[in-house]
């Protein structure tokens, strides 16, 4: 009796991705650190040892590993100029950083992908209008755009997200447009058109899934940039309101005390550096994993 033929085992996409991530030590470390920061942000109210808004001025500017006999507090990273626990403020500030970065990247990605696919697939006047919008936004200085919007509306979390989304979508649009121009000339797209598929079906089923890869790579790489931009805006006082703890805002508060209380600026700066480095390491792996030339 002939033996039944067996198909070679092929692991699922998730298993393949996990195996590739495990082989990339830097990306794995970045993913673990980023996951820990996300858990810290989600569980801030349980992890933070003290109220991040509680001010005890007579305990201000005390260094790391300080114990206060009067209040019984033990501050691991010290206190700021108003006596607020620095560790608690950094933990709560991670919420704002992650919300702003991920929201801005998702919104800008949606706008950029839609306009990029429309410009690349339909061409003609649609392409001309979309690309002229891209040129206009690229020619407008980002700092001036941020200052103008904040001056009119006032600093707030939605304004910061909107300003950064308006700046980043042009990157998605240009890259996705180029990918769409290449994909729409492929044989399977032309075959779908010849078989009578509607333009909407061709775009959604055959074009869009094949241009998402560069958009995903851009998203992973720009999360780190958005974190830096949000921190810079908060440092300058034109980002999230001062009453909301942010890493850039805490860093800005500490710049006046660098010679007497270095820890106020050092630890939020360290948090920004570690987070951005983790995101960039993970983004490099995503770029390499999704690049078919490297996979080949």
Extended strand count: 2
- Nearest-angstrom radius of gyration? 24 Å
Calculate the mean pLDDT score and round it.
Answer: 84
Instruction: Please give the alpha-carbon distance between the first and last residues.
Output: 39 Å
Order the strands across the largest sheet as they lie in space.
1-2
- As a percent range, the share of helical residues equals over 70%
Q: What shape does the CA trace take?
A: elongated
CATH class of the domain at 93-295: Mainly Alpha
H/E topology pattern: HHHEEHHHHHHHHH
Low-confidence stretches: 1-9
SS content category: mainly alpha
Number of helices: 12
Task: Assign the CATH superfamily of the domain at 93-295.
Answer: MetI-like
Reported by name, the CATH topology of the domain at 93-295 is: MetI-like fold
- Strand percentage, roughly? under 5%
* Multimer state: single chain
> How can the largest sheet be summarized?
2 strands, antiparallel
The CATH architecture of the domain at 93-295 can be given as Orthogonal Bundle
Please outline the helices and strands.
Elements: H1 13-23, H2 25-42, H3 44-47, E1 66-67, E2 74-75, H4 86-122, H5 124-139, H6 142-153, H7 157-183, H8 187-194, H9 199-236, H10 247-254, H11 263-290, H12 292-295
Antiparallel strand pairs: 1-2
Helix pairs in contact: 2-4, 2-11, 4-5, 4-7, 4-9, 5-7, 6-7, 7-9, 8-9, 9-10, 9-11, 10-11
